[in-house]
Design goal:
Layout lengths: L7 H149 L1
């Protein structure tokens, strides 16, 4: 059973070699490895914290962007509403001006028509008067001629 149970000397020398290697490794290898692992862990934690900060900054930027978009939409709607109000106001003013211009043109044309009617009526009256004068002259001439003929005949006979 020598193979299954180690001798006491073997255990002693293995323990001494293990302790020497443990001391050597702990003094020379484990400190740099631990320092490297700690530095790496610190770097990873810093990176995670930076990523969280960046994520929060991105959220803030998105929130600000959304607020700006909402404000610009509100401003856009206000501007559009103001433009529609101005458009309606300008249309009303233009309509009023057009109505005033049309009314003044209608009044002027009515005055012109009335003046032309009066002038035409006066001219018609003058024509009638002239025609009646001419007609009365002719009638008078005929009557006068008849009267003269009658007188002449009366005188002669």
């Amino acid at each position: 059973m020598d193979l299954m149970t180690p001798a006491l000397g073997l255990i002693f020398w293995q323990s001494i070699i293990f302790l020497i290697s443990f001391i050597l490794l702990s003094s020379f290898a484990w400190k740099p490895i631990n320092n490297f692992i700690e530095n790496r862990e610190k770097f990873i934690l810093d990176s995670i914290n930076d990523a969280k900060k960046k994520k929060n900054q991105i959220k803030e930027i998105k929130n600000k962007k959304n607020q700006i978009i909402k404000k610009t939409e509100i401003m856009k709607n206000l501007i559009i509403n103001e433009a529609f109000k101005r458009k309606k106001k300008i249309e009303k003013e233009a309509k009023k001006k057009a109505i005033l211009i049309c009314d003044s043109l209608i009044k002027k044309t009515n005055l012109l028509i009335n003046n032309n009617k009066k002038m035409a009526l006066e001219e018609f009256k003058k024509e009638i008067l002239n025609n009646s004068i001419i007609l009365s002259e002719r009638i008078l001439k005929k009557k006068n001629n008849f009267f003269v003929k009658d007188l002449i005949q009366n005188i002669i006979y």
